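Q: What structure does this chain adopt?
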Amino acid sequence: MKKLIEKIKRKWLKDTFLTILLIVIIFAIYFGINYGVKKLNLEDLDLTTDKVYSISESTVTKLGNLEKDVQIQLLNMGDYVYLLDFANKYTQLNSHISLERIDDLSTRTDLTSTYGIESTDSLIVIKSGEKETVLSLYDLYTYDYTTYEQIDITEEAITNAIIEVTIEEKPKVYFLEGHNNYDSSYFQLLQQNITKEANEVQSLNLLTTQSVPEDCSCLVITTLKEDLLEAERDQLIAYSNRGGKILLLADSNILGTKMPNFQQVLDLYGFSISEGILMEQDQSKMLYGSPHFIIAEVDSSLLKENFNMNMNICVISSGKIDFKEEETLQNLGVSYNILAQTSDSAFLRTHLELSSSVKTNQDTEAGNSIIGAIVTRNLEDGKEAQMIVYSNAVFATNQPINMNNTYSTYANMICNNDDVAINSISYLTQRTDTITIRKDTDSVSYTVTESQHNIIMAIIFIVPLAIILLGIIVWQMRKRKK
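A:
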């Protein structure tokens, strides 16, 4: 009996040793494979439809032959595994791109003071020589207000930042000054975002320069509170006649201020802007309870090729763009494409003392009114002058807007207002070097913290191993009972 017990004990010890050895071997293989993959720095397989985790062909084309050294600094980004992996793909794309990860800013007072951040803040810094640009986590996402999805623009932001710090000459965007209804501070956020798109932004006063500079890639004209002087009118006409590009953000002339000189500039393009404001009646085309906050879908394909995101603009107390009859436009050599318009139930209100939110006998039918258009003017020398016009300027400003008495936001943050304004600039400056990559969140981005990543890895690997171990133990116990 004693020998039998010793025999069973030896067999149990042997089986237990083999089980432990098997577990050790499994763990060794697991950690060995992970270590090997990490050392080899193999590219992840991306099986998603929209290639959420892959560098696009657009980025490969723009940066594949980059010859300038670029450094991507990730400050306090250790918790964002997806971002770390994605940034590393740029180093695989081009040997001139390097990646530096700084996870402890408590000892880097030089960085916290330079960028005005706390030691717990996160930031992306892209450098090349003396040039650099900074991205926050908020710069990596936007929203599609048609589908109410969060849109990943990580690749767009990083690629365009690299282009910005390596580009030799940036397009110059001038904002016309002198007779504006809005102070320049109202367009501060817009100008910052235009600058992020690798443009140089300057102000322009025609009374001091005597002409629109030759290096002007796009001239932005915002709502005027008074008419241009004749000299300014002539300078704008001269700019148009040499093929100039203009972005016009013009509110309705609700005060009825006479501007014959400015209208002569608009007459070149065959349109005028109404003195009343548009009111929407389609509940799906306006903010709740606010018919003067009109939401319209923008034909983004006209502004950006391969732009896989629907854009909505929300204009506020907008005017109506009235084009001349077709024969007049043909004589002017003018054609236009509609970017945005109201629903067929909208109306125009010129009697602004009316408080009714629905159409009255004093209002005018204005269904399918144009509120945004690309206007092309053919010149005699074969060139083209182009203007993108929106019969509203408020949508592009950082004017605070009270939303349903619950919270406030900036006007340019409503719907895709910011994207609409920036893409209009990109179209007029003919930017072929920057990219627009909007990845649908139908394929959800794997953006988690380090602790969340560890939990997921535990579920994937440790739980199955625990189940296997438990199965072996149960099997041994049942065997012993026999």
